[in-house]
């Protein structure tokens, strides 16, 4: 049963929230030794939240939209009573959070049931969730492979059927890469759409929050439930809620759908090109479109990320570099040492880049490209090869996502299953203009209805 | 910058920021910085007129007046 069916069953009284919660707890117990998605389990809280949903029903009260839905959060979200690890050892010394992150509060108000915190790359600097402190998260479709990152625990938990919904962050691709590699639906909203208050930052200029889910309906419902202005978050630009669920099934008739060529074609393997072609055919997209200055957008995102990330952790890097993740500590230090000129130039470029990207959407409503250059790599694999070119794995899984998030556009990742990948998935990015998440979700719903884009049950 | 120059830069800026680095780490950091230098050089070639300001608290576009 996927989560849309689960929500209907709970709403109709055919299944209690407590039963749904116990099923999720049993699934986590049965699979997490293999997957290693969870770093914290909040089972007492989950049982209490589920019981509260059932009590509302018993009192005859109307149930909220996500009533009884099991979910978990990347461990950079504050969970009341737990220390916010952000994948690190360093943060273990911090006091427990006194309240939930804003988005956790909003999901609780919508009736969702929190089961715990999820593994991630340390401080979100990575695309593979090869976390030395908490162990690597493994891909539920092939345990020898990475689940992607930095929200690897989130992608794996949904793909393994442990929870139906997971909250994540995405700076350069950290929602979209695990969605692609684990074969689940992901939404990176417009930069500034959702409040980031109560989460541990990575790069203030580029951090986004959003959901991963097992179906498009739940992705849209959760996104809608999390929307709302937040005057206490200086980077939350949304002034009101713009619900996407009501138009989810409107189809793509009238939408101008294009396929990104150039950089996005050149950095995609054959299976990645194949899934884009498949999605393009289903959505009636025929024309190739050139995204302006994609390589420079990626370069600038890389520089801004390194500078802000390195600066954020400079004091700990001075005092206790040996406590950092060995695979990323040198990158953090290199970022802290970058010349100011590189950073300022990247931020000036971003303003010009925004105007050129936004101009593209005068002619297009939705644009398609692959989410990752290749499917899931083996844990520990140092290089990937794309069209005869060798790239270091850890930074390069974001080659196709970084130019898009640097512009701040909303993206839905659709899970497709190309041939020639030993049964592994590879996602397609459905990109819309800023504040047009609903258009990307409409296209996603069409792909889901075709049966081509969908999560597949893992053999766990 | 060649490899030696990057390494010298790493050592000098680390000293300026009071960030201790042993020889092995300094070389590893220099390797990363060298890769980023290639990206920075590409960005250097992009024409930015003087009136282009850095992105503020970044907004991809104004929040719309009307809901779609």
Uncertain stretches of 5 or more adjacent residues of chain B: none
Integer tally of domains of chain B: 1
Largest sheet of chain A: 11 strands, mixed
> What is the succession of H and E elements of chain B?
HH
In total, the number of domains of chain A comes to 1
Task: State Rg of chain A.
Answer: 20 Å
Task: Count all strands of chain A and give the number.
Answer: 15
End-to-end separation of chain B: 51 Å
CATH topology value of chain A: Amidase signature (AS) enzymes
What is the arithmetic mean of pLDDT of chain A? Answer: 97
Number of helices of chain B: 2
- How would you describe the shape of chain A? globular
Mean pLDDT of chain B: 91
Superfamily (CATH H level) name of chain A:
Amidase signature (AS) domain
Task: Name the features.
heterodimer, A: 460 residues, alpha/beta, Amidase signature (AS) enzymes, 11-stranded mixed sheet, two-stranded antiparallel ribbon, 16 helices, 15 strands, globular, B: 68 residues, mainly alpha, elongated
Concise summary:
Chain A is an alpha/beta fold and 460 residues long. Chain A has a single domain (3-450), classed as Amidase signature (AS) enzymes, CATH 3.90.1300.10. Chain A contains 16 helices and 15 strands.
Description:
- The complex is a heterodimer of chains A (460) and B (68).
- Chain A starts with a helix and ends in a 10-residue tail after the last helix.
- Chain A is of the alpha/beta class.
- In chain A, 38% of the residues lie in helices and 15% in strands.
- Chain A is globular and about 60 Å long.
- Chain A has one domain (3-450): Amidase signature (AS) enzymes (Alpha-Beta Complex), CATH 3.90.1300.
- With 68 residues, chain B is mainly α.
- Chain B has one domain (1-62).
- Helices cover 53% and strands 0% of the residues of chain B.
- In chain B, helix 1 crosses helix 2 (23-44).
- The radius of gyration of chain B is 19 Å and the shape is elongated.
């Amino acid at each position: 049963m996927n989560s849309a069916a689960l929500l209907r069953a709970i709403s109709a009284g055919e299944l209690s929230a407590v039963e749904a919660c116990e099923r999720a707890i049993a699934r986590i117990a049965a699979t997490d030794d293999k997957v290693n998605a969870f770093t914290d389990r909040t089972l007492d809280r989950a049982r209490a939240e589920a019981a509260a949903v059932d009590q509302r029903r018993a009192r005859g009260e109307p149930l909220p939209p996500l009533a009884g839905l099991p979910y978990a959060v990347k461990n950079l979200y504050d969970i009341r009573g737990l220390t916010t690890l952000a994948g690190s050892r360093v943060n273990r010394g911090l006091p427990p959070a006194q309240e939930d992150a804003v988005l956790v509060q909003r999901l609780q108000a919508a009736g969702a049931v929190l089961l715990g915190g999820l593994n991630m790359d340390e401080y979100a600097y990575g695309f593979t969730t090869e976390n030395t402190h908490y162990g690597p998260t493994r891909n539920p479709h092939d345990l020898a492979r990475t689940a992607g990152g930095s929200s690897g625990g989130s992608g794996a938990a949904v793909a393994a059927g442990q929870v139906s919904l997971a909250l994540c962050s995405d700076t350069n691709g950290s929602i979209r890469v695990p969605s692609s590699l684990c074969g689940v639906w992901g939404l990176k909203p417009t930069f500034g759409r959702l409040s980031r208050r109560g989460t541990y930052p990575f790069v203030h200029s580029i951090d986004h929050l959003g959901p991963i889910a097992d179906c498009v309906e739940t992705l849209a419902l959760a996104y809608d439930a999390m929307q709302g202005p937040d005057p206490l978050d200086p980077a939350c630009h949304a002034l009101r809620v713009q619900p996407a669920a009501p138009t989810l099934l409107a189809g793509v008739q009238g939408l101008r759908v294009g396929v990104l060529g150039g950089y996005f074609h050149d950095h995609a393997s054959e299976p990645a090109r194949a899934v884009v072609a498949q999605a393009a055919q289903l959505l009636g997209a025929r024309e190739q479109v050139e995204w302006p200055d994609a390589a420079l957008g990626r370069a600038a995102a890389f520089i801004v990320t390194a500078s802000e990330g390195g600066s954020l952790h400079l004091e700990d890097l001075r005092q206790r570099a040996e406590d950092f993740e060995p695979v990323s500590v040198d990158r953090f230090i290199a970022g802290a040492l970058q010349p100011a000129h590189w950073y300022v130039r990247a931020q000036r470029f971003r303003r010009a880049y925004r105007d050129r990207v936004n101009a593209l959407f005068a002619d297009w409503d939705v644009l398609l490209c692959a989410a990752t250059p290749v499917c899931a790599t083996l844990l520990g694999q140092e290089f990937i090869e794309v069209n005869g070119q060798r790239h270091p794995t850890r930074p390069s899984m974001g080659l196709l996502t970084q130019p898009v998030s640097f512009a701040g556009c909303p993206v839905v990742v659709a899970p497709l299953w190309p041939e020639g990948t030993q049964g592994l998935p590879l996602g397609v990015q459905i990109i819309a203009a800023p504040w047009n998440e609903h258009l990307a979700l409409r296209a996603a719903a069409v792909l889901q209805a075709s049966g081509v884009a969908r999560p597949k049950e893992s053999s766990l | 910058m060649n490899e030696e120059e990057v390494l010298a830069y790493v050592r000098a800026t680390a000293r300026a920021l009071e960030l201790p680095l042993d020889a092995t780490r300094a070389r590893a950091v220099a390797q990363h910085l060298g890769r980023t230098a290639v990206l920075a050089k590409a960005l250097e070639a992009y024409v930015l007129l003087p009136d282009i300001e850095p992105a503020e608290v970044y907004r991809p576009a104004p929040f719309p007046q009307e809901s779609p």
